Amino acid sequence: MGVVEAAHNVKILGSGDRTIVLAHGFGTDQSSWKHLVPHLVDDYKVVLYDNMGAGTTNPEYFDFGRYATLEGYAYDVISILEELKISSCVFVGHSVSAMIGAVASITRPDLFSKIVMISASPRYLNTKDYFGGFEQEDLDQLFEAMQSNYKAWCSGFAPLAVGGDMDSVAVQEFSRTLFNMRPDIALSVAQTIFQCDMRHLLCHVVVPCHIIQSMKDLAVPVVVAEYLHQNLGGESIVEVMSTDGHLPQLSSPDIVIPVLLRHIRCDIAA
After folding, report:
1. What is the pLDDT of residue 270?
2. Mind telling me the catalytic residues?
3. pTM, two decimal places
């Protein structure tokens, strides 16, 4: 196993002519794909990895400077694909990883046949002419809560982000992976994500993008999915699901898995 593979806990499952790369969002790790993977391994080669900073990665490898922008993560994706000698993949990115994949595809569009985006946002802050869902005051309070008592913040944030029943398995699972992150790394990653503005880069994303969004999502208003659709540089399609929460692949797999499989298998109609 190569250095990059080992650092990111890369796992390769299944076999097939096409490669699917599954990339998790903030506060989770590759286990967030546990409901999807069994449906893919018979037909595809499936690549799973952990973003640097996830609780399953070595915190000593987390470079606060490199990961102060999404470009640092995007270069990791390219490095993983190059080390595995993957010439083209379907990239399925949840939350921030959808944007990470998009950024990586600007540098190396040849590596991506399409990007499936779940709960993606290019910017979380509101402006005069853009609704991202958050005011700066909201984010400042969120960061302050993370700093003052990280465990308490995890317990409060997990049910809000997942949606639905506070005692659900999905909430417990997200709480676990969130709490596994080192608090100072979690704060840094959250600041990078919530303060980022990738809107100016969208026009440079030319690979086809399938935008999948929950009807109700604490972190990403539905209008953001339409904004992505209107501003991406290549072909795109939007599907809004009747799901609640930012991690629908964990909380509503019965609804989400068939949708994901359809978008993975079917290209955008000409």
Report:
1. 60
2. 95, 217, 246
3. 0.97
